[in-house]
Specification:
This is MxaD. By secondary structure, the protein is of the alpha+beta class. A seven-stranded antiparallel β-sheet has the order 1-7-6-5-4-3-2.
Length: 173
């Protein structure tokens, strides 16, 4: 009887190991900016002007589709990304959006950017958080360029070039 129970348990565990699919990924970056939160928030909440502080983007086009606000980003690499604004919370200085489709190697990407007050009136802290999956949602073998490492690298690069550009824009504007 013990052998049967152990066999059933091992079969159950082995099936779960191979049936889980991709793990959720998360990137979170924070930068301190020597500018008032209101000034920084004014830049971030302008959903149609992302190209002003994202060096990987050459153009941003806003359009309304029913209740949705969409922005189409043209990337320096030549690709396009379509994003949907999920919400702007003026009081919390928080903007939420998602990627619907495009030339970024991620799936189910949801993000928010929040501006917080720094220790002095002319200091801000900006935190950008993205949650997403790799493109390939099935179990291994995973095609090249559709894995977790590629997805993480792409999102980290987006944040790593944009946040210093935001800082520079806010501090010199």
């Amino acid at each position: 009887m013990k052998k049967i129970i152990i066999s059933i348990f091992l079969l159950f565990v082995s099936m779960n190991v191979f049936a889980h699919g991709p793990s959720p990924q998360k990137v979170e970056k924070t930068i301190k900016i020597n500018a008032s939160p209101d000034k920084v928030w004014a830049i971030i909440k302008d959903f149609g002007s992302f190209q002003k502080w994202q060096p990987l983007v050459t153009d941003s086009k806003l359009e309304k589709k029913g209740e949705d606000t969409l922005r189409t980003l043209t990337l320096k690499s030549g690709g396009k990304v379509i994003e949907r604004l999920k919400g702007i919370d003026e009081e919390a200085m928080k903007l939420k959006y998602e990627i619907l489709e495009g030339a970024v190697p991620v799936a189910d990407y949801n993000s928010f950017i929040v501006v917080a007050k720094g220790p002095s009136p002319n200091e801000s802290s900006v935190t950008w958080v993205g949650r997403f999956y790799r493109v390939y949602k099935l179990n291994p073998p995973i095609p090249a360029g559709q894995d977790d490492e590629t997805a993480l690298k792409a999102v980290n690069e987006m944040y790593d070039v944009a946040l210093p550009a935001l800082k520079k824009l806010a501090e010199t504007k």
